[in-house]
Design brief:
The protein is an alpha/beta fold and about 475 residues long. It has two domains: about 250 residues, Rossmann fold; about 160 residues, no CATH class. It is about 40% helix and about 15% strand. It has 18 helices and 15 strands. The protein has an eleven-stranded mixed β-sheet. A hairpin with a 4-residue loop joins strand 12 and strand 13. Helix 12 packs across helix 14. The radius of gyration is 30 Å and the shape is globular. GO terms for molecular function: ATP binding. It holds the Pfam family DUF87. Keywords: ATP-binding, Nucleotide-binding. This is ATP-binding protein.
């Protein structure tokens, strides 16, 4: 089946068409400075192809969630979910062929890159029977595939860049057609950009970006200046899905709009100047300003030196520090963090700094844990386990190796209940350890571990739930779910 997507008009007045079937096989790169109409182009393409092919949008600013109304896209706010849940959500999207918008609004850059990498790998690793054709649109692609080191950890940068490279280089065999948009070609990884065969280049001003755009369009360097003069919403297009020679396209109107829009001039209020002055300065006379603290008069340097010379010198004797047992200190610091209500909303790296400060306050100069070790101890502390990780709880930690780091605390809470022959933790207790108030997320956590044979949950006819950990042979007592 051949479907032409109407994008607007060419400079000759002819309709500007994109071959959707060819686009699925050859991928697309869109470039344009802020205000060039890049997001408008993507919105036009998505609206005109909606209902013909599955659409998956990674949206850093939450601009495309408005497609969920008239076009039925499922909008997901990534900030409400864990990395494991995002991966599971991606697999479900491929299985049910649902058009979705993954909004990354509210996340810091590292969180956006981590989430996008997990989501793309979930799409990529779907079973072969779910390899249906889909457009995967990634806006602001230079964030997720930077050409140089970004201000994030190397692990996150590599994961994000690897996922984007897989999408553009190997995604076609899995039915994934990458459509990436960027403001700066120079900031986008060349390995990712080179995999696209179709190009739509909008207005740009920097020489390095114009030169790269001209190279991709097959234009001579002296012709690159024309890219600077393009009007807003006008793009130069080239590729098997667009045209065999560079053509100029004027993008047509769209039906939906972004939640955020370009700034426009708004008339200033017409209030008389005296009235506004009275409004702005009214009540300031009632404000009590603190009296200034008089500063001491500076003394001449000679007098200060004479006073210092008359002071007796006392020898400083450093007493040898007594060795401190680190285990009780670390257990006390972890107990304080685990019982702190404000700690639930903080990242692991911030809590690690708090842990180091608490250890120093308790007499331990340097905590003998790195960030990875602290992450494991923190998960155990949230489950009520503060000591014996390398001894009594070593089998439980070994059984929990298949569990992601953010789920380890919930797994150890179940293991602790089973070891102490206590009732199974409730959904509310699991949610609290998992760092959420959603009982649904707690249930999805159990489903995730059960699908991977980490636990086996059993609910009897009276509705009481018990959980078995097969690797340990431990089972909790039944309790109300």
């Amino acid at each position: 089946m051949t479907l032409k997507v109407d994008m607007g008009f060419e400079s000759t007045g002819a309709p500007a068409l994109i071959d959707l079937e060819e686009l699925l096989a050859t991928r697309l790169l869109v470039q344009g400075n802020s205000g060039s109409g890049k997001s408008h182009l993507l919105r036009r393409l998505l609206e005109r192809s909606a209902g013909q092919v599955q659409q998956i949008i990674i949206d850093p600013e939450g601009d495309f969630v408005t497609l969920s109304g008239p076009y039925g896209h499922v909008a997901i706010e990534a900030i409400d979910y864990s990395v494991a849940e995002i991966t599971h959500f991606a697999r479900r999207c491929r299985e049910h062929r649902t058009s979705v918008v993954l909004s990354l609004e509210g996340l810091e850059m590292e969180g956006q890159m981590r989430c996008a990498a997990a989501f793309l790998m979930g799409l990529f690793d779907a079973p072969r029977e779910h390899w249906f054709p889909a457009l995967v649109v990634v806006d602001e692609a230079q964030i997720f595939a930077p050409s140089a080191g970004a201000e994030v950890s190397e692990e996150v940068r590599r994961a994000s860049l690897g996922a984007m490279t897989n999408l553009m280089s190997r995604g076609r065999k899995r039915g994934l057609a990458g459509i990436i948009a960027t403001q700066r070609l120079a900031k986008l990884s060349k390995n990712v950009a080179a995999e696209a065969s179709n190009f739509l280049m909008g207005r740009t001003f920097l020489d390095i970006d114009m030169a790269r755009a001209a190279d991709l369009l097959g234009m001579e360097r002296r012709q690159a200046e024309t890219i600077r003069d393009l009007a807003r919403g006008t793009f130069l297009g080239l590729g098997p899905a667009i045209a065999r020679r560079p053509v100029m396209l004027k993008i047509g109107p769209v039906e939906t709009s972004a939640r955020s829009s370009s700034p426009v001039l708004v008339p200033l209020p017409q209030a008389p100047a005296p009235d506004m002055r009275e409004f702005l300065l009214g009540g300031l006379e009632d404000t009590v300003m603190p009296a200034p603290v008089p500063l001491p008069r500076p003394q001449p340097a000679a007098i200060v030196l004479e006073e210092l010379a008359r002071l007796p010198l006392e020898p400083v004797i450093e007493e040898p520090a007594e060795p401190v047992d680190p285990e009780p200190v670390m257990a006390s610091a972890l107990r304080a963090i685990a019982t702190d209500e404000d700690a639930a909303g903080k990242t692991t790296s911030v809590l690690f700094q708090d842990f180091q400060v608490r250890c120093r306050m308790l007499g331990l100069r340097q905590a003998p844990l790195d960030l990875a070790g602290f992450t494991r101890r923190l998960a155990a502390a949230r489950a009520g386990i503060f000591e014996g990780l390398d001894e009594a709880w070593a089998p439980a930690l070994e059984a929990g190796r298949k569990v992601p780091d953010d789920m380890l605390g919930a797994f150890l809470l179940i293991a602790r209940a089973a070891s102490e022959n206590r009732p199974c933790p409730s959904d509310q207790e699991l949610a609290l350890v998992y760092g959420t108030s959603s009982l649904g997320r707690a249930r999805r956590l159990l489903s995730y571990m059960e699908e991977r044979d980490i636990i086996v949950a059993r609910t009897d006819l009276s509705g009481r739930r018990s959980i078995t950990i097969p690797a340990l042979g431990w089972t909790t007592l039944p309790t109300e779910a």
